[in-house]
Amino acid sequence: MSSPSLSAKHALLSIYSSFLIMSVIIGTVFARLPENTSAFYSRGGILFLGVLFTALIPLAEIPTLYGQRPIVLRHKKSAMYHPFIEAFAMTIADIPITLVTLTIYCIVLYFVVGLQASASQFLCITFICPLSTLTNSFYSVFYLFIITMSLVMKAYFRTIASAFSDPAPAQAVAGVTLLLLVLYTGYQIPVPEMIGALRWIIYINVRSLSFIVAS
């Protein structure tokens, strides 16, 4: 039987590998795009898929959270610490791993596709970018919003998991809400063509905010 430390190393290695492989796949699909307006929609697809993958990965954490819940509840019953402390510690501990994985993901995806090859565009030195241009400030907040998006979605799915006592309804709610967030990002369905009764979703959708600002 493998030790817990060895299992943790294998888990980290699988996370790093999955992000690296997906960045290569997405990057090679959109590699060598023409530097004119004919590739404008394809460049939007780069941002959409880049943000989408970072939202899908945290969804897989829900079963793991329910596996840890009996231990957390036992600690609470023994007056060792409140579940909030465990959730807060997990969030803090995830930040270094998230930074490493998303740095690998963003570097490979960004430069394989051939976006603006400058540190200012990649590392968010320039924060204001006109949506109508393909040069200068385009994609200036890519790295910042990819990381923000991942952390927000982790917190969102953990909140859903904490609200249900069983993993089945939690995964169902998380899946349906994620589908709505993906559809109402502003890429697949343009804002003018959205259903009026559901258009409000785009204003509270962190994926839409990340997609629009990074564009």
What does this structure look like?
The protein has one domain (4-214). 68% of the residues lie in helices and 0% in strands. The protein has nine helices and no strands. The protein has helices spanning 4-29, 40-56, 62-77, 83-113, 119-122, 142-163, 167-183, 201-204, 206-214. The N and C termini lie far apart (48 Å). Residues 124-140 have low confidence and may be disordered.
Keywords, separated by commas or semicolons:
mainly alpha; globular; 9 helices; 215 residues
- Amino-to-carboxy terminus distance: 48 Å
Determine the number of helices (DSSP H or I, runs of at least 4 residues).
9
| N-to-C series of helices and strands | HHHHHHHHH
Mean pLDDT: 75
Question: Could you estimate the helical fraction of the residues in percent?
Answer: 55-70%
Q: What is the assembly state of the chains in this entry?
A: single chain
Topology:
Layout: H1 4-29, H2 40-56, H3 62-77, H4 83-113, H5 119-122, H6 142-163, H7 167-183, H8 201-204, H9 206-214
Helix pairs in contact: 1-2, 1-4, 2-6, 2-9, 4-6, 6-7, 6-9
Task: Give me a quick take on this structure.
This protein has helices spanning 4-29, 40-56, 62-77, 83-113, 119-122, 142-163, 167-183, 201-204, 206-214.
